[in-house]
């Protein structure tokens, strides 16, 4: 990931793609918008993200202050992840992407099915 | 690029990322929305796309029917590219991405400067 000091250009689209332009990062944001919290919950999403890719993307999302790590009393000692307000503000981007996909890609469905219980 | 037959999941976000989830494809769509037409015009955008990446992404965009190749009388024998109506329908996605970038990434500017005359 390029830092703010190494922008490819001042174009906001290019700068957003420097952070989110891959096949996985927005899916993790999607999962958090759906209320998923734990590493193994993200792993269970139907796309089957590899654990090394997930760990890398979570670290980058935390670095970009889109996601924060916290601890819950629910499962002691296990890191939990949630969107910051900056991360939550990506919802209109996700909505626009999902709307375009539903309108233009055959076989897409609005509701995500998990491959296992959370 | 995965074909429709090899979807990672039926999630529209995942399916859109299978097509557009990289650092370059949406920038080519952006350039076409700005009225750019020729291979060397896309090369001149400030992000400095490599010609092999540009050729690959154009081919994939044509394959996905987001872009069509045509010939102009303006420059005989040179291929020109333009968005199809499916490609143009990505404008709300670009707008949402640009709006988020402008609001959240320091140093971004709404107006794209070209590094050379078209």
Helix-strand layout with pairing:
The structure is a homodimer of 118-residue chains.
Chain A: H1 12-20, H2 25-33, H3 39-43, H4 51-63, E1 67-71, E2 79-83, H5 85-88, H6 91-104
Antiparallel strand pairs in A: 1-2
Features of this protein?
homodimer; 118 residues; mainly alpha; Arc Repressor Mutant, subunit A; disordered C terminus
Explain what the structure shows.
2 copies of one chain form a homodimer. Chain A has helices at 12-20, 25-33, 39-43, 51-63, 85-88, 91-104, and strands at residues 67-71, 79-83. Chain A contains 6 helices and 2 strands. In chain A, strands 1-2 form a two-stranded antiparallel sheet. The radius of gyration of chain A is 15 Å and the shape is globular. Chain A is mainly alpha-helical. At the A-B interface, helix 1, helix 2 and helix 6 of A face helix 1, helix 2 and helix 6 of B.
